[in-house]
Amino acid sequence: MAIDKTAAASLAADVQSARELRAKFKTDKDAGVKAAAQEFEALFLQMMLKSMRATTDQDSLMDNEASRFFTGMFDEQIAKDLSRTGSIGLAQILKEQLRRRIGEDASGNAGENAVPRAEPLPAATLAAGRGEFLPLAAFGNPSNPNLRAALERVSMQRAAPAAPADPQSAPVAATPREFVTQMWPHAVEASRSTGIPPQFLIAHAALESGWGQRGIKNADGSPAYNLFGIKAGGSWRGKSTEITTTEYENGVPVTQKARFRAYDSYAEAFADYARLLGNSPRYSGVIGSQSGTEFARRLQQAGYASDPNYAEKLSAIIAGPTLRQALIG
Questions:
Q1: Average pLDDT of the segment spanning 138-162
Q2: Neighbours of 134 (CB within 10 A)
Q3: Across the strands, what pairs with 253?
Q4: Does residue 184 register a pLDDT over 50?
Q5: Is 79 exposed, middle or buried (0-12, 13-18, 19+ CB in 10 A)?
Q6: Which of 116, 133, 178, 223 could form a disulfide with 173 if both were Cys (CB 3.0 to 4.6 A apart)?
Q7: Rounded to an integer, what distance in angstroms lies between the CA atom of residue 277 and that of residue 270?
Q8: pTM as predicted
Q9: Contact 299, 311 (CB under 8 A)
Q10: Which residues are known to be catalytic?
Q11: Which among 202, 206, 212, 138 is positioned nearest to 174, based on CA atoms?
Q12: How far apart (Å, rounded) are the C-alpha atoms in residues 35 and 185?
């Protein structure tokens, strides 16, 4: 049986870490609690980095056992360094909860600020306690459903910016990071109904809207909030706007006028997009896609866009550094 070198190295490190933690608890309980919290945060971050990499293609010429081994070591070091800096905040929250738990066990009853025994250490406090933003999909789809649910609750803690009273002054994201932050809660909601990872939906919106910089507008200049370039066909009964667009006929770009759906908010746009994918038989193969390449390819095969390079462009955004950096900040 082949031995996973990365796993073996991690196991050895874990045994050594466990010994060091026990020693710290014996000599300095507070230092032991801090070290335990940091170890947990590092492990948590390492799991998410591994899941993030699992969403990218693994069939490149540079992908082999050696590259995966050193990539695993690199991710482990990143996770440890992030935990030591305290920039994420999970270790600090865990440390406080562990201190309360230790105090409770010593006294035999829960104090005023103690965490009740029935309440697990909530991963959702990772960002909620600090008002920070941590997108689940940046790290793929963890197999543990409880972890996934907790992280989704975290992501929903940060609501999308409310639309201003004047629709013509709707906020436009200046950077991909701002775009992801603004759209993430809506993407998570759409992901629940489509089974498609939120980062794929964000990437699709980024492709169609130029990261929010080329949004479709109404005749009066106000935003139409149509992030996905969905046209207003004969069955559409909502608002619409006519703009000049580029379509491909026999692989040749042609400029023409077309009517597109208009919404009152980005939340409405994501919801309609999710309904389109979920209710139309032509997109049945797209629902539940867990590979970025497959998601892009199936969208093109279903006829979502006429651009012959559409799948390639979307795949490049999903697997590219711009989205990855925007997701992890």
A1: 43
A2: 25
A3: 248
A4: yes
A5: buried
A6: 178
A7: 11
A8: 0.54
A9: yes
A10: 247, 272
A11: 212
A12: 33
**Strand ranges (E), the chain:** 240-249, 252-261
Residue 288's region, left for phi above 0, alpha for psi from -120 to 50, else beta, is left
CATH class of the domain defined by 159-328: mainly alpha
Q: How far apart are CA 322 and CA 177, in angstroms?
A: 9
Provide the phi-psi class of 140: left if phi over 0, else alpha when psi is between -120 and 50, else beta. Answer: left
Q: Where in the chain is the domain with CATH 1.10.530.10?
A: 159-328
Tokens of 100: 């309360």
- Short-list 207, 206, 305, 311, CA closest to 258: 305
Q: Backbone dihedral region of 302: left (phi > 0), alpha (psi from -120 to 50 degrees) or beta? A: alpha
If you search the block for the tokens 């992908």, which residue do you land on?
Answer: 63
Residue whose C-alpha is closest to residue 73's, from 4, 6, 3: 6
Give 194's contacts (C-beta < 8 A, 6+ positions apart): 201, 274, 277, 278, 286, 287, 288
Q: What is the DSSP letter of 185?
A: H
Does the pLDDT of residue 227 top 50, yes or no? yes
β-pairing, 252-261 vs 240-249, is antiparallel
